[in-house]
User: Fold this.
Amino acid sequence: MAVRNPIRPAMGVEVLDLRHFSSADLRSLLDQEVQRWGEKLAWDYRSSSEMILRYIDAKILPGYAALERGSIVGYSFFVYEGSKGVIGDLFVSPSRGDARAVQTNLIEHVVETLQQSPGVQRVEAQLLAQNTGELAEPFTANGFHRYRRLFLCLDLATHPTPKPQSVDGVQIRRWTDADYQPSAGIITASYRAHIDSEINDQYRTAGGSMRFLNNIVRFPGCGVFDPEASFVALHPPSNSLMGLILCSRVRDDVGHVTQVCLLPEYRGQGIGENLLAQTCEALRSRKFTLLTLTVTEANRRAVELYRKLGFETRRVFDAFVWEG
Assistant:
């Protein structure tokens, strides 16, 4: 059994059900979170923040708020996806000197609720805005596996990347809505027995991959989907998909790769580099200055490719998974 390190509780702080509160109670805190995402990730978090506030007013967002003398100083929410719980966010005001104690209190409430929820057999968390190791203790003490992930950036304004090159027998075109169903199949096949399918179990089934695509393309959680900078690779004889890259706009001049994958049998032929080059070219043509993406540190082949193309690490964060 894991032994927890003693953490002093945040003095004078209550942890209460998030559904007791309204958007008016949380708006000031979420304004601070918007500022943090902008500074740390070059990400305009306002659309996500407004969506969270709407769900709070509708009383449909489960989670907890940390309250001190009538003011909310931190919050965390989660969602249920069948037999899985996903921790969607955690934020504590950076002005608090005991922020770590408040974070730990919130995590322990969320984790306890999810692990004791009837039917929940898996819990996932990826807290992009938190530094690696910062929140590890309360997760690992409760049986979670930890995976280090990298947030990488490419300066489009100053760093030259290769121009898109044709690859023999491969056609690359922009992504369309007609690619939805085949793209789900490509994602599932590409991540079979891959470490990222351990972190996100949506990759394991076609239905899960469809939900993943729907969240990326139709909702603002990962920015606003940008079809002009999203592409698919086709095998001309059969006109079937063999790979894809999806990009969202997370700030007026910043793109974020939400998905890039290629069927295993076509790797090592320069197709992945070509897809990335197409996205970079499309963003540069519209005066974007930065492209970001996330990758699991243990995925050495992908990390090496991104380094080769000029991506640099902006931050390291953790993904956590619990299997009940």
User: Anything to note?
Assistant: The longest strand covers residues 240-251. The CA atoms of residues 144 and 322 lie 4 Å apart. Residues 153-323 form a domain with the Aminopeptidase fold (CATH 3.40.630.30).
